[in-house]
């Protein structure tokens, strides 16, 4: 990865957002973004955490207890902002890129759902950002039963179940040491979900989920995964020569045929060594209230390194997702705080609410 690759990727990203190089304000912002991303790329390394502390870390073996532990340790960096998407498109980019083989260049097309709204697609006017307290962020992402929250929660449950299994039964993929994998609750980094406590290895594992196996296979085919903070990625990449792995699994189980047995579901867990990461523009990049520009990361896997790590069996018992989330929320904050936000979001509906349109919550990186 180099500065030229960063500029090239950001150029594509901004074209997908309709931020052209023709308008002055857009041109200035594009230039500022390239400078910011390049500075992140050259930033001083910082891994955070402590391997000696990790060696003493225990992770619950029961899925319900593990999910409770996961939420208790979930944290976010300040300041926090929610956003209103005036097009009610969940913060999605309006254009997609397609390579024209005849012209030997990429071309950009407006997505079907944005047809008729081209004039309203400018991200500098489309989004409105509002400061949030941590309590409201967690309530919004833990307790609201809409499709986006349920999908995100399902991903958290699957990640937790993977941690339960891997920490007990799997060897470090890199050094093959048994019992060395740890859940890294000492770091807020999105790139150290798991880490090997073997000091001669210290491999880092980023866990990500896809909607289903088809979506997962597509990402591997394109060798393109949208993951966490680019700024944090650069800090850890520049810290020292430690291998970084991407662990990918679907949120929907896959049917396995076993002779003379009933079909059962499992989650195929794939892994690959991270080769590089490039900045990816998303709606938060356009938040004028932040002191610095934020990007996600487009991750590429070292070709040929991708493989099935293990098959994760489906858990035997369901997780009381919202019951656990409510208990953890009240313990972290208070019953009065829970009642306040219940009233704010649900009113007298007793917890039942309908989606009110454009207001969304920034996701954690």
Fold and architecture overview:
The protein is an alpha+beta fold and 365 residues long. The chain has one domain (3-361). The protein is built from eleven helices and 14 strands. The chain has helices at residues 3-16, 24-41, 51-55, 63-72, 123-126, 134-143, 147-169, 213-222, 230-237, 321-332, 335-346, and strands at 80-85, 95-100, 105-110, 127-132, 181-183, 194-196, 204-210, 225-229, 244-250, 254-256, 264-280, 296-301, 307-313, 359-361. The protein is globular, with a radius of gyration of 21 Å.
- List segments where confidence is low: pLDDT < 50 over at least 5 consecutive residues: 350-365
Secondary structure tally: strands: 14
User: How many structural units, i.e. domains?
Assistant: 1
What is the straight-line distance between the termini?
21 Å
Largest sheet: 9 strands, mixed
User: N-to-C SSE series?
Assistant: HHHHEEEHEHHEEEHEHEEEEEHHE
Question: What helical percentage do the residues reach?
Answer: 25-40%
Quaternary form: single chain
Taking all Cα atoms into account, the compactness measure Rg is 21 Å
Class from secondary-structure proportions: alpha+beta
Please state the average pLDDT score.
88
Approximate strand percentage: 15-25%
Tally of helical runs: 11
Task: Identify the overall geometry.
Answer: globular
Walk me through the topology.
Layout: H1 3-16, H2 24-41, H3 51-55, H4 63-72, E1 80-85, E2 95-100, E3 105-110, H5 123-126, E4 127-132, H6 134-143, H7 147-169, E5 181-183, E6 194-196, E7 204-210, H8 213-222, E8 225-229, H9 230-237, E9 244-250, E10 254-256, E11 264-280, E12 296-301, E13 307-313, H10 321-332, H11 335-346, E14 359-361
Parallel strand pairs: 7-9
Antiparallel strand pairs: 1-4, 1-14, 2-3, 5-6, 6-7, 8-12, 9-11, 10-11, 11-12, 11-13
């Amino acid at each position: 990865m180099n500065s030229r690759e960063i500029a090239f990727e950001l150029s594509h990203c901004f074209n997908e957002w309709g931020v052209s190089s023709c308008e002055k304000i857009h041109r200035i912002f594009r230039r500022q973004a390239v400078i910011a991303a390049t500075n992140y790329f050259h930033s001083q390394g910082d891994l955070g955490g402590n391997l000696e502390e990790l060696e003493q870390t225990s992770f619950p073996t029961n899925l319900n207890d593990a999910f409770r532990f996961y939420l208790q340790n979930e944290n976010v960096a300040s300041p926090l902002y929610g956003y209103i998407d005036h097009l009610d498109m969940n913060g999605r980019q309006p254009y997609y890129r397609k390579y024209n083989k005849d012209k030997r260049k990429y071309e950009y097309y407006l997505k079907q759902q944005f047809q008729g709204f081209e004039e309203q697609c400018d991200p500098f006017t489309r989004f409105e950002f509002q400061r949030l307290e941590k309590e409201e962020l967690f309530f919004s992402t833990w307790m609201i039963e809409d499709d986006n929250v349920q999908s995100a929660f399902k991903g958290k449950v699957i990640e937790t179940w993977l941690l339960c299994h891997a920490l007990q039964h799997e060897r470090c993929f890199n050094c093959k040491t048994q019992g060395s994998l740890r859940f890294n609750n000492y770091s807020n980094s999105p790139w150290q979900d798991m880490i090997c406590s073997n000091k001669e290895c210290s491999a880092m594992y980023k866990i990500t989920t896809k909607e289903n196996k088809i979506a997962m296979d597509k990402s591997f085919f394109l060798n393109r995964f949208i993951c966490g903070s680019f700024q944090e990625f650069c800090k850890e990449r520049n810290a020292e020569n430690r291998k970084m792995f991407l662990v990918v699994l679907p949120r929907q189980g896959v049917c396995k045929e076993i002779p003379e047995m009933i079909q059962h579901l499992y989650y195929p867990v794939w892994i690959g060594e991270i080769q590089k990461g490039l900045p990816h523009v998303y709606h938060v990049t356009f938040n004028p209230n932040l002191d610095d520009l934020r990007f996600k990361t487009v991750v590429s896997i070292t070709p040929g390194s991708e493989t099935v790590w293990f098959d994760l069996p489906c858990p035997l018992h369901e997780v009381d997702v919202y019951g656990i989330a409510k208990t953890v929320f009240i313990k972290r904050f208070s019953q009065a705080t829970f009642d306040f936000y219940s009233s704010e979001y649900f009113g007298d509906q007793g917890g039942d609410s309908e989606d009110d349109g454009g207001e969304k919550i920034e996701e954690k990186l």
